[in-house]
Amino acid sequence: MTGAIPRRERHGTEITGRVRDETGGPVPASAVTLVDADGRQAGRTAAGEDGAFALHAPARGTYVLIASAPGHQPEAATVNVTDTPVRIEVALRGTGGLHGVIRSSETGVPIMGAAVTVTDPRGEVAGSRLSGPGGDYALPGLPAGTYTLAVNAPGYRPTALAVTTGATVSSRQDVELADGAVIHGTVRLPEGSRPAVTVTLLDTGGNVVRTAAAGEDGRYAFHDLDPGTYTVVAASWSPSRRQVRVTDGVRNRHDVRLS
């Protein structure tokens, strides 16, 4: 009966270590690959939740250990293998990205559900998100460069601005949205009548800007209007027509009485 095969011959030399980020924290599930001097794969594994990994080099020699993970730049390190177990620490740098908070410019209140879109210099969409409950958004993994950041939300004026992202650190860009001008009010009808009422908004040239149907209680509203002078026309029986001037970020009340 032959003797037991020595562990080193059976498995090769053990290489252990840990994959961490720039802060020293673990990078779970990182892919760890070992290649020999000819570029052939000699071993492969995945780091655990604590960033630790272990694999074996089949023989003595010089190897390259490659670690990679989503949201990080890959890293390579030279490993000289003899008969002694090797331990190595690998630090991965984060890739660039963009994050921030969307708020109202008037009240400072965070805006949830704002559409955040980033386009590259060619106009291609590089990423998009909806802001969270705290108005926060994050677009990780953007390559370093200059982008256009566009944000819009119901009831607010959309905005766009140029932003620059770095290669290793996520850039912060908070955005404030101005409240759009609003015309709202109530159409008052003769007692006992509830016909359908259409409310139309005209610009100074007489062009139709918006049209809305008044609710059962007679209320209507036009949101996100450009500054200027408008004419409100409510039609059901005999039409009512009156000019209303609005300024940016102001809610203007205009009630209408139909005879």
TrEMBL record:
One of its GO terms (molecular function) is carboxypeptidase activity. Gene3D superfamilies: Carboxypeptidase-like, regulatory domain, Immunoglobulins. Residues 1-27 are annotated as: Disordered. InterPro entries: CarboxyPept-like_regulatory (IPR008969), Ig-like_fold (IPR013783). The keyword Chaperone does not apply. Coiled coil: none annotated. Belongs to the serine-aspartate repeat-containing protein (SDr) family. This is Carboxypeptidase regulatory-like domain-containing protein. It comes from Amycolatopsis rhizosphaerae.
